[in-house]
């Protein structure tokens, strides 16, 4: 029943579908209704409707029924306006609120008549807004008050909890804010207010609690926890004061506009210009002014034709905060027109898509492993923290996991960093199935990544487990060999194929674990027999073998670019520290100016006295000795000042070395001489000495980058100083030799 018009369930379902909503189901519930002195049971028909997340105006019965009636052309769109009240109220915001909830907005609904149904709907809308856009009151908290019981102007401040005392909603005496927090946290004391317990954490750690008072000091509300009993709304309330405190001002305005527009006729009227040509182009139809205006009217949007050709002025109601662009107007017109009525047309150009290479590879691997008799599983991407840490005997793994800030239960705390926990849980749930159990999964794991804009990245992995009365290591090894054979990767240790190497991993049994090394000596993953403690922790009682490999290993190209970026960053950081500690000091400037002056003076004297006598040559030699002494003083000053920089970059180098330890990051175009091979091939496996380690590439990059960076920034010594300075062991001038911080 919509405004006196009865509709069958099928008709209502069809109407909702045309409007873009989905009627999930219709259920019947028995409700107890009090009528006079008698209570009787009435069967009610409940419609469960799925609403779009951005249509807050449909969260109440009033908003939903109004929108459907307008769409069905049984009601005209409402026109909102803002009334000019004789007396306008003020809300004074005190500076203390900035550290708690800095924003507040308010409105007054005047001459409101609420019956029991409207009153219940009013409260229900507040609750739905709190759970949705308000994010359980963390972003916005709504308070409603009987305006006739309070007196403005209102003050919104933050006070010490022990100094706040008022009678909370539903209670018979006054409490301090400290007492209320304790009482609400104990659900057995205030059973009717147990729903407030989850909201206590929002302000419990604050030194000051937000509070709203009227001009007489009466407490209206302690947001976002509870309102005061003094300003409680009843069925006799005629004027309602609505306030919304927030940490997000935009969300607060949306919430206030939604409540005011659905329960009052007074509101602000925004408008937007829409081009007819753009609307037709986006939808793929050809409509004129009158047709578009009629369809907009069905969507509760009023508009008028402008004198300028192909333009409409569209009035966006305050309840439609989801309308942000002309595209949103076009979407509403398409809904009113009917998606099924839009003629399907082939595009002028055929664009044939190709599968993403990684997904294509994944499908081929799935088919190959399934053909070998293994069963694929599909597990949740979220798991508990224990699953990836203590149960796998890798406690440190929890520090590298992406954590869910507010998990609903303990089984969905973190994003998985390994596929093994999901497979082991699947086996634990199917222990009664005939042995052996041969399962595999090919899905993404989530790893922290500082280079990603979101702080994490996905990595596609393949994991397989074999569960039987014996460990079956040869079976899991055979599956790995079959997979590599199907991928045309041969068994080889020369960097062109794959092989396994002994490895220690706490998840696996000591002596029964190996690393899987792929082409270019890249570590793909781990293979072995699981440790008994791991097996028991997942509720299993038989031996189990497994492997987990990365099927999208990061190549040397990405590592090489990353190291160049690190070298550039450290060079910039080093020059910044050098500037702060050396270049801007008065002593360095004095020594540099003195060297420049003496160098130029010495060059002029040499040019004049080409065939000088012995005394003149002695003067030149004395000048050169003074120049060398000044140069030596400047280098000693720089070395003393930059010892701290050396220690800092030693720590940085150690950190980065641990990340790239054992990885081949580049291929050298030459074979280094024997005394350099210890550095260029450091911690690398194999005998190919063109493989480059992190430390060697980092040193090469930093040396070249920093020298050019000094010239670019103007910190390099002048050419005259370089010509006059004494050469060092490597042929470079002493004056140009800077203290090297691990370059």
UniProtKB/TrEMBL annotation:
Signal peptide: none annotated. Its cofactor is Mg(2+). Its EC number is 6.1.1.20. It holds the Pfam family B3_4. It is a multi-pass membrane protein. The chain crosses the membrane at residues 561-582, 642-660. GO terms for molecular function: ATP binding; magnesium ion binding; phenylalanine-tRNA ligase activity; RNA binding. Residues 585-640 form a coiled coil. Keywords: Aminoacyl-tRNA synthetase, ATP-binding, Coiled coil, Cytoplasm, Ligase, Magnesium, Membrane, Metal-binding, Nucleotide-binding, Protein biosynthesis, Transmembrane, Transmembrane helix. Residues 267-344 form the B5 domain. PROSITE patterns: B5. One of its GO terms (cellular component) is phenylalanine-tRNA ligase complex. GO terms for biological process: phenylalanyl-tRNA aminoacylation. It comes from the Eukaryota. InterPro entries: aa-tRNA-synth_II/BPL/LPL, B3/B4_tRNA-bd, DNA-bd_dom_put_sf, EMC3/TMCO1, Phe-tRNA-ligase_IIc_bsu, Phe-tRNA-synth_IIc_bsu_arc_euk, Phe-tRNA_synthase-like_B3/B4, PheRS_beta_core. Belongs to the phenylalanyl-tRNA synthetase beta subunit family. Type 2 subfamily. NCBIfam families: pheT_arch (TIGR00471). Tetramer of two alpha and two beta subunits. This is Phenylalanine--tRNA ligase beta subunit. It comes from Dracunculus medinensis (Guinea worm).
